[in-house]
Amino acid sequence: MKISLSWLREHLRTDKSASEIARILTDAGLEVGAIESTGVAIPKVVAARILESVQHPNADRLSVCKVDDGSGAPRQIVCGAKNYKVGDIVPLAQPGAVMPGDFKIKVGKLRGVESEGMMCSSKELGLGEGADGLLILSPETRVGTPLSELFPAEEVFEIEITPNRPDWLGHHGVAREAAAFGCGELIGITSPPVAAKENPAVASISAPEAASLYSIRRIDGVKVGTSPEWLRKRLESVGLRSINNIVDVTNFVMLETAQPLHAFDAAKIDGALTVRFANHGESFTALDGKEYTLSVKDPVIADTKGAQAVAGITGGIVSGVSESTISLLLESAVFEPSVIRRSIRNLGISTDSSYRFERGVDARGALDASTRATALIVELAGGTPAPELIIAGSPNASRILALRGDSVRSLLGITIDDTAIETLLTKLGLKKVEAGFEIPSWRNDLTREIDLIEEVARLQGIGNIPSLVRGIPSHSSEADRSYDFARGLRRRLAGMGFHEARSGTLTGSLRQADFSTGAVVTVRNPMGEEHSTLRASLIPGLLEAVTRNLRHGATAVRLFEIGRVYRQEEPQERTFAGFLLTGRSLPENWRGEGSRPLDLFDLKGILEALGDCTREITFRPATHARLPLALEIVIAGKPAGILGLLSLADTREATVGGHQGGLVVAELDLALLQEAVGTAFKEASRFGALPKFPAVRRDLALLLDTSISYSAVEHAVLGAKEELLSGITPFDVFSDPKGEKVPAGKKSLAIALTFLHPDRTLTAVEVNDALTRIVARLREAAGAEIRG
Amino acid sequence: MENQLAQLGVRIESLRIEALSAVAEASDAVGLKEARIRFLGKTGSVSLLSEGMRNLSKEERPVMGKLLNELRDAVTTALDSKESALTAQADAAALALIDLSLPGTGPEVGSLHPLTLLVDRAVQIFRRLGFSIADGPDIETEWHCFDALNTPADHPARNEQDTFYLPDGRLLRTHTSSIQIRTMVANPPPIRIIAPGAAYRRDEVDATHLAQFTQMEGLYVAPGVSLADLKGTIEFFFLELFGPGTEIRFRPHFFPFTEPSYEIDLRTEALGGKWMELAGCGMVDPAVFEEVNKKRGDSVYDSEKVSGFAFGFGLDRLAMNLTGVPDIRMLTENDLRFLSRFTA
Fold first, then answer.
1. Is the CB of B320 inside 8 Å of chain A's CB atoms?
2. Partner residue opposite B232 with nearest CB, options A27, A468, A521
3. A566/B138 CB distance under 8 A
4. How far is CA B335 from CA A502, A584, A747, in A?
5. For residue B17, what are the contacts with CB-CB under 8 A and spacing of at least 6?
């Protein structure tokens, strides 16, 4: 909402500056977002006539002009513009003028020719962008007139008006609030009193749920024409276009009082104007020429022919004021906000009028606004108003609200006595009566005790509210435990060299398809297909990030993301951890230590480490549409996610040329991991005494068929059930397709076995016996031969 | 006899001179080891001399023994000290080869996302004040997101222009305030929670807007909670977050779910020294308590007995200003050149 400062000052007697007023309004809850200055406030810029123009002797693009600025002698001005002709009147900045940007005009030479000032474009004067070249003024402009007279400086506040305060949607209401907050004295609007009476032949309400008050004032003999300059400027200063004197007055009074008005051409109206709901399918052409098909929920103002206006929203093209209008029916009404809101949504129209009605207007002010507009119309367009205002319905009776001082004191945390509360509220126009406070008609928002408490807080000022830090601590919740678990995980992963990613949860549907594990959730009204689907997996987002990073020259990418994924099936929202790994295992370094491409086992190792000492994370072979090498992640026996290597085709698509190694991805359900690993001490992590006796290690080199997996070997070893065996570690695996080092079809696997007895030192004999039994088991169960 | 003793004494003395000069001459570990064998080995000079003791008389032996021990000690000491000197010399030579100016070769370190770091700082501060975390779904019902928060069905925020709806009529929550409702419906007062989470608004994505953003919600409901508590808590939080010298301004505002309501502006060096609108807050509107009571089927949230404050603020813009990124989309692009600047 634009509030013109000079207009505001017609309603507020104050010696405060624009910025002081802005601060007071902001403290009162009318946030002044910007103070916009329009017009010219620069001294020494005047209108001047161009007397002659010749080519500059030393510059093709410049001309040398002689101009008359009313000072007597013509001035010589060097000019670069081309859009003028001799005889035009243009703005001239005389020497000494200080232009926007602190640019001071001086007498000086331009390419060897003296220039005594600068002719200006509208942009140079701060009057907006305008057309290129000089601002050409009206030929009637008197030479020497200061531009500040032609374009008076005006300051306009851009104010954010909260929806609860429609009384601030007019200059008078803003002035009233400013006065209440000590910004000066309110200047009332005076209009001659008028008698009001009911006459159903002129105005009636047949839908009382749509309007509580409807009034019509007839004015005969008006002359529709252009508005005087003061009125046009007022409207333009707050961004409205002048239409004609009648419409301009209705708009002016609306911007002053916040009461929308509408003028019908009386000649186009047959019979009484009635507030009713539209008939089903009733058609209506609005002022802007658009046709609407109305529904029974749309309130209209109708005569005997049909709807002439959609109540409070827009007038009709047929009955609107035109140049030929002689008699007016000036409407001022109070429409029900909820009915207006419903109709706005239904018809998809929003106007300055509906904006105010949907928030609620001042029921008593409606009739005053009518009187005020009538007086202005008579002043500007002539005519004779009917002696009486015809009304239907009646303004609601004034409301009285009780307020307990104790409620104020306890909710605001202040000490304030009842008299002080009364003094504060009286500033807002509330009246203390026996039962509480009588609410002024423009404050529809005050309906409960809490609303009055808010007013006390606002008037008291937040500066006078003490600051307390109190409160009982609350016990940690499930959400706290999840947060802490994820927090710990994030930190560990960062320590392991992973960077944390955060991707948008709204993505394209195609990108999700292959990695989702259920039906995806889509949005009915997305901002484009690319943001139509809630992600079902973290992997597509990470893949997008890897492409970006490789393109920017990254040689290794380790990313993780912890975030929600969504699906149709319960639970619909789960928190997942996603991982992506590719590139060199080590950064380039001077030791010459070999770097290798990161692979699936690097990520497998990371995931295993996340299981802590609990060994809760295991893997089993899986098939996956996008991952030719895939393992299902199993946590405490439950399927919890996927680990895999992206296909070569996908890898090529996601990476850049010359990139080494595949793309390894994984994701898992964090809740399952948290459940298995836990956030605090648990049974599995309890620790007995440390072993007192040394362990014994024995290495075995096995020759196996290539089809025998490591896990089969491990299984065979454990199958021997040797109690002394405390660990198995593979430390070398190789095969040789040429069959030189190892026969073709065979592979060599070296494992280290560790033996331990808790209570004594092991003897060589018992270790060797155990080893013999294990070897026998390996021969039998895995077909292993012992090498060397 | 006298003569024999004297003779031995002379031999000991000359052996001492010979041994000490041999030790002094040894220039490396090998030479020194040879010298040790030559003099102190089983067949070394000193040992051989000791065998001469057998020919001495009972009276002479102790005298001679003492002299021989002294010789052995002297040679041993010389050998040991020379050995230490040589070791030290070798160690120093080895160290001198190391170019300490080479860069370290530590592990590659990852990073935490700046939003995570910001959320965590906020969480830790509120935890110090005794708040616990609450949670709720991103996919919400209209009731939790709007109705219960005193936002009527015809409120502008509820239209399809501003809110993402699912085909089944549910929506993506437009604010984390729905978590307030879920928490109160599930738990009687007192409530003292914060809720970090995602929220969605149907904004065109540009340099300063995301359709999905991160918010932090807070709610404290108990008997006697006042506006003064709200003010103190908010001030404590932002001073803790940005340090002393932070200016905090409360501007009266309107939200359907709080009354009185305020917007909070902040000015601090960390945010560029300009006033920045950061948060909304207020005292929980009694209408919200009424809706919660209706849902619960009791009246534990009786606004005559309990009161509360609520606040909420967006973290993305804050992270953007704290990190100085020119475009808010950088927060979701996961560019390592950006991410790696933030260490855990």
1. no
2. A468
3. yes
4. 10, 18, 42
5. none
Chain B residue with Cα closest to A355 = B156
Mark yes or no for CB contact B253/A29 under 8 Å.
yes
ipTM computed for the complex: 0.85
Q: Tell me the sheet residues that pair with A31.
A: A160
Mean of the per-residue pLDDT values of chain B = 90
Determine the pLDDT at residue A34: 86
Q: Band of the pLDDT at B318, cuts 50, 70, 90? A: confident
Closest chain B C-alpha to A451 CA, distance in angstroms: 7
In this prediction, residue B142 carries a pLDDT of 95
Of the candidates A713, A712, A711, A751, the residue with the CA atom closest to the CA atom of residue A731: A751
* Two tokens, residue A364: 């008593």
Residues of chain A with pLDDT under 50: 680
Whether residues A477 and B337 touch (CB distance < 8 A) is answered with no
Q: Assign domain B114-339 to its CATH architecture.
A: 2-Layer Sandwich (3.30)
Q: Give the Cα separation of A5 and B17 in Å (integer).
A: 112
Is there a contact between A479 and B134 (Cβ–Cβ < 8 Å)? yes
Which B-chain residues 112-151 have CB contacts (< 8 A) with chain A? 112-113, 115-116, 120, 123, 129-135, 137-139
The domain segmentation of chain B, as residue ranges, is 2-96, 114-339
Backbone torsions φ then ψ of A719, nearest 5 degrees: -65, -20
Predicted pLDDT of residue B1: 52
Chain B residues with beta carbon closer than 8 angstroms to that of A162: 253-254
Task: Give the separation between CA B302 and CA B293, rounded to whole angstroms.
Answer: 8
Q: Is B338 on the interface with A (CB under 8 A)?
A: no
State residue A138's pLDDT score.
87
**DSSP character for A364?**
T
Residues of chain B found within 8 Å of residue A497, distances taken between Cβ atoms: 107-110
CA dihedral (B135, B137, B143, B146) positive or negative: positive
Among residues A255, A169, A190, A184, the alpha carbon closest in space to that of A427 is found at A184
How many CA atoms does the CB half-sphere of A728 hold within 13 Å? 22
DSSP β-ladder status, A211-220 and A696-705? unpaired
Both tokens of A213, joined, read 């008050």
Q: What is the pLDDT of residue A755?
A: 95
Compute the nearest-CA separation of A608 from chain B (Å): 19
**Mean model confidence pLDDT for chain A:** 91
B247 min Cα distance to partner chain A (Å): 13
> All domains of chain A, ordered by start, with CATH?
2-39+154-186 (3.30.56.10), 45-150 (2.40.50.140), 195-393 (3.50.40.10), 400-459 (3.30.56.10), 479-677 (3.30.930.10), 688-786 (3.30.70.380)
Q: Identify the DSSP state of A195.
A: E
First to last CA, chain A: 91
Query: Residue A539 has which token pair?
Result: 């992997």
Distance between CA A97 and CA A105 in Å, rounded? 5
Return d(Cα B111, Cα A560) in angstroms, integer.
10
Confidence band for B23, pLDDT divided at 50, 70 and 90: confident
Q: How far is A471 from chain B (nearest CA, A)?
A: 7
Contacts of A657 (CB under 8 A, 6+ apart): none
Q: Is pLDDT of B344 > 70?
A: no
pLDDT score of A499: 97
Q: Which residue of B has its CA nearest to A445?
A: B254
Tokens representing residue A516 in the block: 């989702």
Interchain CB distance below 8 Å, B138 and A573 = yes
- DSSP labels, B57-68: -TTHHHHHHHHH
Interface probe with B: pick from A341, A425, A502, most Cβ of B within 10 Å? A502
| CB within 8 Å of chain A, chain B residues 60-89 | none
Token pair listed for B247: 């200016």
Secondary structure class of A240 (helix, strand, coil):
coil
